[in-house]
Amino acid sequence: MTLGTMTTTQAYGEPSYWDNRYANEAGPFDWYQKYPSLAPLLHLYITPHHRVLVVGCGNSAFSEDMVDDGYGDVVNIDISSVVIEAMRKKYSNRPQLKYIKMDVRDMSAFQTGSFDGIVDKGTLDSLLCGHDSHQNAAKMLEEVGRVLKDKGVYILITYGAPIYRLRLLRDSCSWTVKLHVIEKLLSEGSSEHKKWELTSVVPLDDGGSIEAVLGKNPDVHYIYVCTKDDSLKTGLKDESAVN
Protein backbone atom coordinates (compact mmCIF):
# COMPACT_ATOMS: atom_id res chain seq x y z
CA MET A 1 0.00 0.00 0.00
CA THR A 2 1.26 3.47 -0.81
CA LEU A 3 0.25 6.78 0.63
CA GLY A 4 -0.75 7.90 -2.83
CA THR A 5 -3.69 5.47 -2.79
CA MET A 6 -4.90 6.22 0.72
CA THR A 7 -8.20 7.99 1.22
CA THR A 8 -8.47 11.29 3.02
CA THR A 9 -11.05 9.92 5.46
CA GLN A 10 -8.57 8.07 7.66
CA ALA A 11 -7.32 9.73 10.84
CA TYR A 12 -3.59 9.80 10.18
CA GLY A 13 -3.12 12.45 12.85
CA GLU A 14 -4.70 10.23 15.51
CA PRO A 15 -2.54 7.98 17.72
CA SER A 16 -5.27 5.32 17.81
CA TYR A 17 -4.98 4.70 14.07
CA TRP A 18 -1.23 4.05 14.27
CA ASP A 19 -1.45 2.12 17.56
CA ASN A 20 -3.88 -0.28 15.92
CA ARG A 21 -1.78 -0.56 12.78
CA TYR A 22 1.45 -1.34 14.62
CA ALA A 23 -0.24 -3.73 17.03
CA ASN A 24 -1.24 -5.81 14.01
CA GLU A 25 1.82 -5.34 11.79
CA ALA A 26 4.46 -8.05 11.92
CA GLY A 27 8.06 -7.10 11.33
CA PRO A 28 9.71 -3.84 10.28
CA PHE A 29 8.36 -1.79 7.40
CA ASP A 30 10.08 1.02 5.51
CA TRP A 31 8.08 3.61 3.61
CA TYR A 32 9.26 4.34 0.06
CA GLN A 33 12.97 3.50 0.30
CA LYS A 34 15.33 1.58 2.57
CA TYR A 35 18.51 3.01 4.01
CA PRO A 36 21.01 1.41 1.58
CA SER A 37 19.27 3.12 -1.34
CA LEU A 38 19.36 6.55 0.29
CA ALA A 39 22.72 6.33 2.09
CA PRO A 40 24.76 8.03 -0.68
CA LEU A 41 22.51 11.08 -0.45
CA LEU A 42 22.53 11.21 3.34
CA HIS A 43 26.32 11.09 3.30
CA LEU A 44 26.30 14.32 1.26
CA TYR A 45 24.29 16.31 3.77
CA ILE A 46 24.47 14.65 7.20
CA THR A 47 27.76 13.57 8.78
CA PRO A 48 28.13 10.83 11.42
CA HIS A 49 28.77 13.33 14.23
CA HIS A 50 25.54 15.22 13.54
CA ARG A 51 22.54 14.87 15.83
CA VAL A 52 19.71 13.49 13.68
CA LEU A 53 15.94 13.38 14.20
CA VAL A 54 13.84 10.80 12.33
CA VAL A 55 10.18 11.85 12.37
CA GLY A 56 7.39 9.28 12.13
CA CYS A 57 9.92 6.49 12.63
CA GLY A 58 7.37 3.68 12.93
CA ASN A 59 9.00 0.24 13.12
CA SER A 60 11.43 0.96 10.29
CA ALA A 61 14.98 -0.43 10.31
CA PHE A 62 16.19 2.84 8.73
CA SER A 63 17.63 4.31 11.95
CA GLU A 64 19.29 1.03 12.92
CA ASP A 65 21.00 1.03 9.54
CA MET A 66 22.13 4.64 10.09
CA VAL A 67 23.81 3.64 13.35
CA ASP A 68 25.38 0.59 11.70
CA ASP A 69 26.76 3.03 9.11
CA GLY A 70 28.45 5.16 11.78
CA TYR A 71 25.85 7.71 12.89
CA GLY A 72 26.15 8.17 16.63
CA ASP A 73 23.05 10.08 17.77
CA VAL A 74 19.74 9.25 16.10
CA VAL A 75 16.56 10.38 17.87
CA ASN A 76 13.30 8.84 16.67
CA ILE A 77 9.77 10.09 17.32
CA ASP A 78 6.35 8.67 16.52
CA ILE A 79 2.80 9.43 17.60
CA SER A 80 2.16 5.76 18.41
CA SER A 81 2.96 4.66 21.97
CA VAL A 82 2.66 1.04 20.79
CA VAL A 83 5.48 1.28 18.28
CA ILE A 84 7.68 3.46 20.48
CA GLU A 85 7.50 0.97 23.34
CA ALA A 86 8.29 -1.89 20.97
CA MET A 87 11.26 -0.05 19.47
CA ARG A 88 12.62 0.91 22.89
CA LYS A 89 12.63 -2.75 23.88
CA LYS A 90 14.12 -3.87 20.58
CA TYR A 91 17.01 -1.41 20.73
CA SER A 92 17.57 -1.23 24.49
CA ASN A 93 21.20 -2.20 23.90
CA ARG A 94 21.82 0.53 21.29
CA PRO A 95 22.48 3.83 23.14
CA GLN A 96 22.87 5.64 19.81
CA LEU A 97 19.15 5.11 19.18
CA LYS A 98 16.55 6.97 21.22
CA TYR A 99 12.78 6.51 20.84
CA ILE A 100 10.30 9.10 22.11
CA LYS A 101 6.52 9.26 21.78
CA MET A 102 5.81 12.65 20.27
CA ASP A 103 3.49 14.40 17.84
CA VAL A 104 5.52 15.99 15.05
CA ARG A 105 3.09 18.90 15.10
CA ASP A 106 4.15 19.75 18.65
CA MET A 107 7.80 19.03 19.43
CA SER A 108 7.95 21.45 22.37
CA ALA A 109 9.96 18.90 24.36
CA PHE A 110 12.87 19.76 22.06
CA GLN A 111 14.62 23.10 22.37
CA THR A 112 14.91 25.38 19.37
CA GLY A 113 17.91 24.46 17.24
CA SER A 114 18.33 20.94 18.68
CA PHE A 115 19.18 18.99 15.52
CA ASP A 116 21.65 19.13 12.63
CA GLY A 117 19.46 16.98 10.39
CA ILE A 118 15.87 15.76 10.18
CA VAL A 119 14.78 12.83 8.02
CA ASP A 120 11.15 12.49 6.93
CA LYS A 121 10.17 9.40 4.98
CA GLY A 122 6.40 9.60 4.50
CA THR A 123 5.33 11.57 7.56
CA LEU A 124 4.45 14.82 5.80
CA ASP A 125 2.70 12.79 3.10
CA SER A 126 0.71 10.98 5.77
CA LEU A 127 -0.54 14.26 7.24
CA LEU A 128 -1.43 15.52 3.79
CA CYS A 129 -3.63 12.44 3.30
CA GLY A 130 -5.53 12.97 6.53
CA HIS A 131 -8.04 15.36 8.07
CA ASP A 132 -7.18 19.10 8.16
CA SER A 133 -4.25 18.23 5.95
CA HIS A 134 -2.81 21.64 5.15
CA GLN A 135 -3.21 22.94 8.68
CA ASN A 136 -1.47 19.88 10.11
CA ALA A 137 1.30 19.99 7.49
CA ALA A 138 1.93 23.65 8.25
CA LYS A 139 2.18 22.92 11.98
CA MET A 140 4.63 20.11 11.31
CA LEU A 141 6.87 22.15 9.03
CA GLU A 142 6.89 25.07 11.46
CA GLU A 143 8.11 22.74 14.18
CA VAL A 144 10.67 21.11 11.87
CA GLY A 145 12.08 24.54 11.10
CA ARG A 146 12.16 25.48 14.77
CA VAL A 147 14.05 22.42 16.05
CA LEU A 148 16.62 22.55 13.24
CA LYS A 149 19.87 24.41 13.82
CA ASP A 150 20.74 27.21 11.43
CA LYS A 151 22.24 25.52 8.35
CA GLY A 152 20.67 22.25 9.45
CA VAL A 153 18.97 20.11 6.80
CA TYR A 154 15.45 18.71 6.53
CA ILE A 155 15.46 15.78 4.09
CA LEU A 156 11.95 15.08 2.83
CA ILE A 157 11.39 11.85 0.89
CA THR A 158 7.97 12.00 -0.74
CA TYR A 159 5.83 11.01 -3.71
CA GLY A 160 4.89 14.69 -4.10
CA ALA A 161 6.21 16.42 -7.22
CA PRO A 162 7.56 19.99 -6.97
CA ILE A 163 4.29 21.46 -8.23
CA TYR A 164 2.63 20.02 -5.09
CA ARG A 165 5.39 20.49 -2.51
CA LEU A 166 7.42 23.62 -3.24
CA ARG A 167 4.71 26.11 -2.28
CA LEU A 168 4.09 24.28 0.98
CA LEU A 169 7.80 24.45 1.77
CA ARG A 170 8.02 28.09 0.71
CA ASP A 171 5.30 29.05 3.14
CA SER A 172 6.76 27.23 6.14
CA CYS A 173 10.31 28.38 6.82
CA SER A 174 13.36 30.18 5.47
CA TRP A 175 15.06 27.48 3.44
CA THR A 176 17.32 26.91 0.54
CA VAL A 177 16.15 23.79 -1.27
CA LYS A 178 17.70 21.26 -3.60
CA LEU A 179 15.80 18.51 -5.37
CA HIS A 180 17.01 14.97 -5.88
CA VAL A 181 15.11 11.96 -7.22
CA ILE A 182 15.35 8.20 -6.91
CA GLU A 183 13.55 5.56 -8.94
CA LYS A 184 10.71 3.85 -7.11
CA LEU A 185 11.16 0.44 -8.67
CA LEU A 186 14.89 0.24 -9.29
CA SER A 187 16.09 -2.67 -7.18
CA GLU A 188 19.35 -2.57 -5.26
CA GLY A 189 22.26 -3.55 -7.46
CA SER A 190 20.17 -3.36 -10.60
CA SER A 191 22.01 -2.64 -13.85
CA GLU A 192 18.93 -0.93 -15.28
CA HIS A 193 19.68 2.54 -16.60
CA LYS A 194 18.77 5.27 -14.12
CA LYS A 195 16.97 8.38 -15.29
CA TRP A 196 18.97 10.54 -12.91
CA GLU A 197 21.78 9.97 -10.44
CA LEU A 198 20.62 10.19 -6.84
CA THR A 199 23.45 12.46 -5.76
CA SER A 200 22.96 14.91 -8.64
CA VAL A 201 20.73 17.93 -8.11
CA VAL A 202 17.72 18.12 -10.43
CA PRO A 203 17.32 21.55 -12.06
CA LEU A 204 14.02 23.32 -11.44
CA ASP A 205 12.46 25.95 -13.63
CA ASP A 206 10.62 28.93 -12.12
CA GLY A 207 7.35 27.00 -11.92
CA GLY A 208 8.88 23.95 -10.28
CA SER A 209 8.59 21.81 -13.40
CA ILE A 210 11.09 19.03 -14.03
CA GLU A 211 9.47 17.74 -17.21
CA ALA A 212 12.32 18.95 -19.40
CA VAL A 213 14.74 16.82 -17.38
CA LEU A 214 12.79 13.71 -16.42
CA GLY A 215 9.81 13.75 -18.79
CA LYS A 216 6.15 13.54 -17.85
CA ASN A 217 5.11 11.63 -14.73
CA PRO A 218 8.47 10.05 -13.88
CA ASP A 219 8.22 6.98 -11.66
CA VAL A 220 10.38 8.42 -8.90
CA HIS A 221 10.36 9.49 -5.29
CA TYR A 222 11.23 13.14 -4.83
CA ILE A 223 13.78 14.16 -2.21
CA TYR A 224 13.80 17.78 -1.07
CA VAL A 225 16.92 18.79 0.82
CA CYS A 226 15.89 21.93 2.69
CA THR A 227 18.68 23.81 4.43
CA LYS A 228 17.62 26.23 7.12
CA ASP A 229 19.04 29.68 6.51
CA ASP A 230 18.28 32.27 9.16
CA SER A 231 19.83 34.97 6.99
CA LEU A 232 16.94 34.72 4.54
CA LYS A 233 14.24 37.21 5.41
CA THR A 234 11.39 35.51 3.54
CA GLY A 235 10.49 32.29 1.85
CA LEU A 236 12.56 29.78 0.04
CA LYS A 237 15.39 30.08 -2.46
CA ASP A 238 15.56 27.39 -5.12
CA GLU A 239 19.00 26.13 -6.06
CA SER A 240 19.00 24.51 -9.48
CA ALA A 241 22.73 24.25 -10.07
CA VAL A 242 25.06 21.66 -8.69
CA ASN A 243 27.59 23.24 -6.33
From TrEMBL:
Q: Domain named Methyltransferase type: which ranges?
A: 53-155
Record-level GO BP terms = alkaloid metabolic process; methylation
Whether DNA damage counts among this entry's keywords is no
Q: Which UniProt keywords apply?
A: Methyltransferase, Transferase
Which GO molecular function annotations are given, in alphabetical order?
A: S-adenosylmethionine-dependent methyltransferase activity
Q: Which Gene3D superfamilies is this protein grouped with?
A: Vaccinia Virus protein VP39
Q: Please state which protein family the record places this protein in.
A: Belongs to the methyltransferase superfamily.
Please report the name of this protein according to its UniProt entry: Putative methyltransferase-like protein 13 isoform X1
User: Which taxonomic lineage is given here?
Assistant: Eukaryota, Viridiplantae, Streptophyta, Embryophyta, Tracheophyta
